[in-house]
Amino acid sequence: MSAETTDFARALREAGLRVTQQRMALLSILMDAADHPNADELLTRARSLDDSMSLATVYRTLSALEEAGLIRKLSLENEPARYEIAPAAEHDHLVDLDTGEVIELASDEIHQLRAELAARLGYEIVSQHTLIRARKIKPDQPR
Predict the structure, then answer these.
(1) pTM (two decimals)
(2) pLDDT tens-digit map of 131-143
(3) What is the CA radius of gyration of the chain?
(4) β-pair type (92-96, 82-85)
(5) Which one of 22, 88, 100, 112 has the lowest number of neighbouring Cβ atoms within 10 Å?
(6) What span, in angstroms and rounded, lies between the C-alpha atoms of 96 and 138?
(7) What φ, ψ does residue 83 adopt, rounded to 5°?
């Protein structure tokens, strides 16, 4: 059993979830994903590990993993939700409206500014997430 597999099993148990093949498979796929796959993409990848996996199982498993705080669901306008492993450090996402690409934006300065703004209002940030929808500026387009 690899260290990663042991970590996933421990995380599931600590979240009060049973360790199942489906949960382990989806966690492993999300951990290795360079993109932010949607449920259909996860099903395709999961079937390479377990051809008995169904879309209903993927959705049930994603729901349980999200509720346990092990993954994060990114709800995008007019598109299927995308998923990622719950980040160790908070970060935002930029979605390219033309290609659908999801780009992670990590910035200590933005995180610090948010914390300062919340503190001025008497709050402490528990969690945060910003989704920025954008289009790439074309070279001949004025800024």
Answers:
(1) 0.69
(2) 888 899 888 766 6
(3) 18
(4) unpaired
(5) 88
(6) 13
(7) -130, 155
Q: Tokens 């599931």 appear where?
A: 12
pLDDT digits (tens, 9 = 90+) for 64-84: 999 888 898 988 777 889 998
Provide the percentage of residues in the chain whose pLDDT is more than 70.
93
CA 102 to the chain's CA centroid: 10
User: Closest Cα to residue 5, out of 18, 23, 14?
Assistant: 23
Reported as a single tens digit per residue, the pLDDT across 95-109 is 888 888 888 888 888
User: What is the Cα 107 distance to its own chain's centre?
Assistant: 17
State in Å, rounded, how far the first CA of the chain is from the last one. 53
Quick one: three-class SS letters along 89-109?
CCCEEEEECCCCCEEEECCHH
